[in-house]
Each structure stands twice: as C-alpha cells, then as structure tokens.
C-alpha cells in the first residue's frame, strides 16, 4: 500500500489530504505520543524514582497537574459511588425510565472506582461478553494473521509510554494490548488492524481486564465509530466534512479562516476523532469526555472538536498570529491549556447546541455530495448508534446479561466453620469410639448467637454470608 510522506501534523502526517488517504489506512502512522514526549529509547524500559500520579502516569504531557483536574470531596465521591452501584444493579430500568438522570451523572463524572464497569455497561460490551462467552478465549488462543501481528507488535511501545502499564517493553500492559488488538483482527478479518485502534484499546485496558477491553473496543469500532478504522478512511473523511459544516454554524470566523487557508478537516481532526481525544487532552479531561462519549455517542466527539476550534480560532484577535496554513497548524498542534482543562471543556461541551439530529442531517448531506463527486463508498459501514440508550434499544439484552458477576468471592469464616461442623462431629465421634470401645452419639454443638460471634468477624458485612468483594473494589 502507498504510504503518506512523513511530516508530523498534530501527531499525524502533514501531507494527509482527502485524496492521499483514499484507498489506504496504513498511512495513519501515529508517531510517538506527542511532540512533548521523548524518543523511544528513553521511554520503554524507562526507570525512574518518580512516583506515578493518580492516573498512573510517571511523566509526559498527560501527567496530572493541580490545574488540569477538579478534586471531588471524599464524601461526595462516596455518595456518587453508592448511586452508581444502585444504577448498575438495575441497569435496564435506569436506561428505560431514568436515562436523563443517568446522562446527568455521566456528565458529572463516573467515580474512578466504578469507571471501568460503567463504561462496559454503557457501551454494551457487558451484554456482548455475556452473549459470546468463550469467544475472546478462542480468539486469544489463535496465532493471528502474521501481517497484522507484525504491525501490532511494532506499535505497542508507542501507546502511552509514560503510563505505568505500558512503560516496560514486553510488560503486562503491552502483552494485554497485543492480545486485544490481535483478537480484534481475528474477530473482523475483513477490517484488520488500524493504528488508531491501539490508543482506544489502551485506554480501556487501564480500566478493565483484557476480555472486557476487547468487547469495549468491538462496541466502539462497530457502534460508536463505524467505518473509522476501515480501509480508505472514508468514514472519517465524511465526518471531517460534517465537522466543517457544523463549525460554519457554531463559529463562522473559524470556518472562514480554515477555508481561506485551504485547511482540509482531515489535516487537523483525524487523530482527535479516531483516538477519541485520548492523545490530545489532559488525562482528567480525557476521562470526563469518555464518560459522556460512551453515554451519549459521537456527538460528544464533535462537540469537543468544535469547542477547541472555536476557542482557538473564533475571534479576529486570535487570528492575528495565524497568517497562513503553517501558523494555523502550529496553533492547533499546541492548543492552549486553559481550553483543555476539565472544568472548561466539560462545561462548553454540555452547553454547545449540537444534537444527534444535526450531525446526521449534515452527514447525509455530505454523503450525497460524496456520491456526486466520487461515486459510491467502497466500505459499507453499519448505521452509527448515538450512545448507550440507542445501543440497548437496537439489541435488547436479557436480564441475566446485565447481572453483575463478582470477580472475587470470599467465603465468611463463620460459614466455613458451619460447613465444616459435620466433619468435626465425625472426628469427635471416632475419638470417643476408640476411647470407650462403643458407639457414643454426641449432640451437635449449637452455632453461636450473633452477639457471641468472634470479635474478628463481629459487625462485618461478610458475616454469615458469601459476599462478593467486587462490590467494594
């Protein structure tokens, strides 16, 4: 396949254009982590005495800073966790009857301790996993297509090299990332592997086991962003034109400037959209954007893109330093930090008046224009589903598919003692038989009353029950 000439543009290749992208996707060489990251030799295998931040980063542009995130009081966080546990225990009812409240809670931010589980439920990955038990294990056990295996292996060290999961070459994070990406190429051999899938899978792996991350990746590729990772990148080009049309309405000044300097959308928005901003924003902002994205669908990705473009290019004063294409690209490569902070980006995204209907209307208009100028699409993608509610409506789950399955089971010591009581009685009987030379029946000792329970287990939630620790982790 033809490759795009080198030259970095916001993490992509500067020579990208609608024409040059047609018919290839190997050209999407997502290079390094960003221009703020060091070379590969300094990254993987990297050892340092520096501690990780609250998200697992040991350095790099996405490391936590006091200005980049909002700290939630512990008591508020505990309340939110309790609310989310209640929602997860009756997910179908919340989706059917209280979806607006669920959406509001996603906008406020999912509690970190439950984010992975919530993402799996929102995306429909939980249902897919339950309905296809054993599928991931089967795919994982296969060797994979050597063509894709080789490309995936070469990409592993590029994914979040400053995160503790992926810092070591051949470490558990890179191993799981390889397993997930290889499994996807076997799951969709006609689609194969696209380099922009790697950061998506890596973000999921930071929050859930490999099997769950695989099904989350499947849902994002097939439901949220269908066609984005197919040969030719036609879907991303269409959405680029859709973004441009929406920008004309949201910020005419920014739109005119980009058109004046012949800035095709594919030049600046490809990495944004294909990686769901995971390589662009500070990490606190990435997580909040993903909370909303997996709940409400691709409109959140469009809104984030529109907010950034409007913020950087939306007034004449801001355009004084952008006298050409190069200066504009440099500006979009180095977005001011204040426009990417969690509080700002979340507020602006929620308030921006762009709906699913607006997106689909513009998408259909661009699709008609594409067919008039270029003919039929080469890759037929399934319809895009706008968020968790649409996904659940399209594939209604069974109740058992939504049941929370514990990952760790701890048996109460009291229950163990009661179950072992019969064996203790038999041993006691045998001893007395040997001593007395005859059968002696011993009365079974009654179980202690609750207030007589050993101090170690008294007033604990595990008393006299088999309780899953998964609820508390």
What does this structure look like?
The chain is mostly helical. Helix content is 53%, strand content 2%. The protein contains 24 helices and four strands. Strands 1-2 form a two-stranded antiparallel ribbon. The chain has a two-stranded antiparallel ribbon with strand order 3-4. A hairpin with a 2-residue loop joins strand 1 (8-9) and strand 2 (12-13). The longest helix has 19 residues, at 356-374. The radius of gyration is 27 Å and the shape is globular. The chain starts with 7 loop residues before the first strand and ends in a 5-residue tail after the last strand. Residues 1-43 and 438-473 have low confidence and may be disordered. It holds the Pfam family RabGAP-TBC. This is Rab-GAP TBC domain-containing protein. Residues 425-448 have a biased composition (Basic and acidic residues).
* Topology pattern, helix = H, strand = E: EEHHHHHHHHHHHHHHHHHHHHHHEHHE
Overall pLDDT confidence: 81
Shape: globular
Q: What share of the residues lie within helices?
A: 40-55%
Class of secondary structure makeup: mainly alpha
* Major β-sheet annotation: 2 strands, antiparallel
Number of helices: 24
Spatial order of the strands in the main sheet? 1-2
Described by its quaternary structure, the protein is single chain
| Ends apart, CA distance between termini | 47 Å
Number of DSSP-assigned strands:
4
The low-confidence runs, each spanning 5 or more residues with pLDDT under 50, are: 1-43, 438-473
What fraction of residues sit in β-strands? under 5%
Rg to the nearest angstrom? Answer: 27 Å
Domain Rab-GAP TBC: 109-297
GO molecular function: GTPase activator activity
Keywords: GTPase activation
Region (Disordered): 1-48, 395-473
């Amino acid at each position: 396949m033809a490759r795009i000439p080198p030259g970095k543009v916001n993490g992509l290749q500067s020579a990208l254009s609608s024409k040059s992208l047609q018919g290839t996707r190997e050209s999407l060489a997502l290079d390094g982590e960003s221009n703020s990251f060091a070379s590969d030799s300094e990254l993987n295998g990297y050892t340092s005495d520096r501690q990780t931040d609250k998200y697992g980063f040991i350095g790099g542009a996405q490391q936590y800073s006091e200005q980049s995130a909002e700290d939630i009081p512990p008591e508020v966080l505990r309340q939110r966790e309790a609310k989310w546990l209640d929602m997860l225990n009756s997910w179908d009812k919340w989706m059917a009857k209280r979806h607006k409240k669920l959406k509001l809670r996603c906008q406020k931010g999912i509690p970190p301790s439950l984010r992975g589980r919530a993402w799996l439920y929102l995306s429909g990955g939980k249902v897919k996993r339950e309905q296809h038990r054993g599928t991931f294990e089967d795919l994982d056990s296969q060797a994979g297509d050597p063509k894709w295996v080789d490309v995936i292996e070469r990409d592993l060290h590029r994914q979040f090299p400053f995160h503790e999961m992926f810092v070591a070459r051949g470490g558990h994070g890179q191993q799981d990332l390889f397993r997930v990406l290889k499994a996807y190429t076997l799951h969709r051999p006609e689609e194969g592997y696209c380099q922009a899938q790697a950061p998506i899978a890596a973000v999921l792996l930071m929050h859930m086991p490999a099997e769950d991350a695989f099904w989350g990746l499947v849902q994002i590729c097939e439901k949220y962003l269908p066609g984005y990772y197919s040969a030719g990148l036609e879907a991303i080009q269409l959405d680029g034109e859709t973004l441009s049309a929406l920008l004309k309405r949201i910020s005419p000044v920014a739109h005119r400037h980009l058109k004046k300097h012949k800035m095709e959308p594919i030049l600046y928005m490809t990495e944004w959209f294909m990686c769901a901003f995971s390589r662009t924003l500070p990490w606190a902002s990435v997580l909040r954007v993903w909370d909303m994205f997996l709940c409400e669908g691709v409109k959140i990705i469009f809104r984030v893109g529109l907010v950034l473009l409007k913020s950087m290019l939306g007034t004449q004063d801001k355009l004084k330093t952008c006298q050409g294409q190069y200066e504009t690209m440099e500006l979009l490569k180095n977005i001011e930090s204040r426009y990417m902070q969690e509080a700002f980006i979340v507020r602006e995204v929620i308030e921006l008046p762009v709906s699913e209907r607006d997106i689909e209307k513009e998408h259909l208009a661009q699709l008609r224009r594409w067919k008039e100028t270029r003919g039929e699409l080469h890759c037929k993608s399934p319809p895009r589903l706008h968020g968790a509610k649409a996904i659940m409506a399209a594939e209604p789950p069974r109740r058992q598919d939504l049941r929370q399955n514990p990952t760790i089971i701890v048996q109460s010591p009291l229950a163990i003692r009661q179950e072992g009581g019969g064996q203790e009685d038999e041993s006691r009987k045998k001893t007395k038989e040997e001593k007395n030379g005859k059968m002696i029946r011993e009365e079974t000792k009654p179980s202690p009353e609750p207030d007589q329970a050993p101090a170690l287990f008294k007033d604990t939630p595990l008393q006299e029950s088999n309780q899953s620790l998964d609820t508390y982790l």
